[in-house]
Design brief:
2 copies of one chain form a homodimer. Chain A is α+β, with helices and mostly antiparallel strands. The first copy, chain A, has 2 domains: about 280 residues, Aminopeptidase, CATH 3.40.630; about 130 residues, Alpha-Beta Plaits, CATH 3.30.70. Helices cover about 35% and strands about 20% of the residues of chain A. In chain A, strands 1, 2, 3, 6, 7, 8, 15, 16 and 17 form a 9-stranded mixed beta sheet that branches. Chain A has a 4-stranded antiparallel beta sheet with strand order 11-13-9-14. In chain A, strand 1 and strand 2 form a beta hairpin. In chain A, helix 2 runs antiparallel to helix 4. At the A-B interface, strand 9, strand 10, helix 6, helix 8 and helix 9 of A face strand 10, helix 6, helix 8, helix 9 and strand 11 of B.
């Protein structure tokens, strides 16, 4: 439910809103490497929210600051907690971008920039909606809390502590998280389950320095060869993960979900084409592609490095090699238990002459949300209103750790109402966000606020 | 066989010879970065050889010049080709040197400088020997050819062409290459076989860009995981290489060689300590460590790279991953055939959704020398005479490409008669060369010339 004046206001202010988003996109706010840009982006958001009448401030963390904001409208009104993140993925590899990642441009009806979709473009929907209600709708119709995070792309290392410290300030009736996507263009979607994450790094150390591969080759364990063997052994020939106990707690897919997903307009060949692969080769045998992405746990190497990687040849047995691995977990797997199985596997598979070091970089629990809560129903109606189609109920293979933290620490079931499209190149070069999604996202956010009043 | 007067002359001129070597060591003749110093070193050698009565000159190549010299004594005398190289490894990392790399000093009975051993100190043995024969022995007793190379440490890129162009001028009855080492102190050694090399690089390409490991994980082949599986599969559980036909042409170790090597003073624990590993884990089952290093072919990854290798975590399935692999080949393996087997293996083991690219970077043939040739016998006797111990007959796991080039292009079996010791820090900071090896090397060279007359 949204006042016509609010919609009209959003329509009239499109160009200005776009220009504002461009300002935000120009901050290269990569959490690990650009603390200055992160602080600037956070302060920019504080100013912007202040202009909408919210009490807003940055709050320091062990890493990049978060933005907290609130608007109290009335004691008898429901309170909505809006979440987004202003930090972005690193833009590498830079040479693959068609335009500079932090110089946003509009091309082919879309905004092209790192963060255009994930998550600056999406979080901006709420700012536009708030402004529209304030300026044209007689004021925001609910109480608001807002949390804009600065370290989502690096696994929200400090968020658990942060939420515990600010639990009172963040108390609400429901949360809206806009950091997800439509199942397909013209098919708005609400995500009711997310995979969790266990992120580990293994370093294999052999000789104390790089040594001559001719003089010594054959005598010692080569850290790269040994690491390759370690990683290869983590899957069996059917694509199943071999870590002890890995599948013990996996919640089986219901028959209803399977039928729902089979009915989705999913074209495997088109999906493969979109990723640039000739065939969908990887993955666990016996499950459909959507099941493999949404309801089955996976293990993927995200990076590997060791020895000489420059141009030409260097004949060494390297002193060390290391690999980063992310495991995507499904309800009801426990990251700690999975990591324990991983450590055990590494211990059992480290060959003589190699010392192994396992480091846990990040963990997030999988989450399963109540699909029938009042907030969920409000979200479904808002999406239908803004995009003209009833939303599909889907899962997502990614982690949005805040969802599980809201549930566990604040007792809040979130509505994962995102506006991205599947081919927006999230986390990749040439990330973009359709203008239409940008504009309609604001309408959906405004409608959600209205619907909470029902 | 060496005239007593020649030995006496060498003893009397030690200080002057050492001072001359210091002059040569002061040229920072690094082939890739110091062309001026290389030219100076080459010209210094030309003048020095001229003083010994040789016809000497520098010969330009595509890179640094080589020095060619000759001395014709008599038509009925055998001709010996002496080889060394005046270029040196870069001295980095400089801060780890105890004294400046190009300011030679004597300390603890050794000469400390880059090139002190490899190869200026070793090649100088021949210059001292020639002078001694000329001044005190009634003249050099054989015809001489000398080749002092300027690009050995950068892989002799121009040498094949050079040898072809100067084949006539380099024709000889035997060659002596002094660019190797004793098996241990007080145990002179002759290397009669070297491993060859096939160097390849494999790139696995999957998605057209890095993609989100959560959203897509489970659906596609991950290039790193696939590459790990590829590399892991190149060895079986017994450490044997699985490439088709890999061992077909391997010349088996003779029982005599095995017994000879078992008798060498090789302390596995000390060798492992020197490399900084707790145990010698890698390698093919059923062979001793020396056999694995010298007589068995190996396959070692020299570098691997893919995805995100920076600090912290990035949750991607990378677009590609690649690995550099060197295979050390033994007689009678053929690099071209081995590479063919490698290509076939990659083709057969590339999973769906991955495109493979195989690149050949470098190849060198293994070499097996005649251990009973007259020159080889002359070398054995010369080392025994100079160092007071019969030389061990050893192989070496590395390649010294000139050896194979002499054999293949000039039809010359070389005697690999070097005077370095295993802990002289070749290619490392604090390279040094024992004075005793320096002086006795000259006696060995002089004796070798004498022995060729038998």
């Amino acid at each position: 439910m949204i006042a016509e004046a609010v919609t009209q206001y959003l329509r009239s202010n499109r160009q200005r809103h776009l220009a504002e988003l461009f300002e935000l996109l120009r901050f290269p706010s990569v959490a690990n490497s650009e603390p200055h840009a992160c602080r600037q982006a956070a302060e920019w958001l504080v100013r912007r929210l202040g202009k909408c009448g919210l009490q807003a401030r940055t709050v320091a963390t062990a890493g990049q600051p978060n933005v907290l904001a609130s608007l109290h409208v009335g004691d008898d009104l429901p309170t909505l907690l809006l979440y987004g993140h202003y930090d972005v993925q690193p833009p590498d590899p830079l040479e693959q971008w068609h335009s500079a990642p932090f110089e946003p441009v509009v091309r082919d009806g879309a905004i092209w920039a790192r963060g255009a979709n994930d998550d600056k473009g999406q979080l901006y929907a709420h700012i536009m909606a708030i402004e529209a209600w304030q300026q044209a709708g007689g004021g925001v119709p609910v109480n608001l809390r807002m949390l804009l995070e600065g370290e989502e792309e690096v696994g929200s290392p400090d968020m658990e502590k942060f939420l515990a410290a600010h639990a009172g300030e963040l108390s609400a009736d429901a949360a809206v998280i806009s950091d997800s996507e439509f199942f397909a263009e013209n098919l708005p979607s609400i995500t009711y389950s997310l995979r969790g994450l266990a992120y580990v790094e293994v370093t294999f150390r052999g000789p104390s320095a790089d040594i001559h591969s001719g003089i010594n080759g054959g005598a010692v364990s080569n850290p790269i060869n040994a690491l390759a063997r370690l990683v290869a052994g983590m899957h069996d020939n059917a694509g199943r993960v071999t870590l002890a106990g890995f599948y013990d707690d996996v919640l089986p897919l219901t028959e209803a979900e399977r039928q729902q997903w089979d009915a989705l307009p999913f074209d495997q060949a088109e999906y493969a084409r979109g990723l640039g692969v000739e065939s969908l080769g990887g993955g666990e045998a016996g499950f459909s592609v959507l099941e493999r992405r949404w309801a089955r746990p996976t293990l993927d190497a995200n990076g590997i490095a060791g020895g000489y990687a420059g141009v030409g040849s260097k004949t060494i047995i390297p002193a060390q090699a290391s690999v980063k691995i992310s495991m995507r977990l499904v309800p009801n797997q426990n990251p700690a238990k999975v990591v324990e199985g991983f450590r055990q596997y590494v211990t059992e598979h480290t060959p003589p002459g190699i010392r192994a070091d396992v480091k846990l970089n990040a963990g997030a629990r999988p989450v399963m949300l109540n699909t029938r809560s009042p907030a969920m129903e409000a979200g479904k109606a808002a999406l239908a209103e803004a995009f003209g189609a009833a939303p599909a109920m889907v899962r997502c293979g990614a982690s949005v750790p805040i969802t599980e933290l809201f549930q566990r620490l604040l007792g809040l079931d979130a509505v994962l109402m995102g506006f991205g499209l599947p081919d927006d190149n999230l986390h990749s070069p040439n990330e973009h966000y359709k203008l239409e999604q940008f504009y309609r996202g604001a309408i959906a956010s405004a409608a959600m606020m209205g619907n909470m009043m029902k």
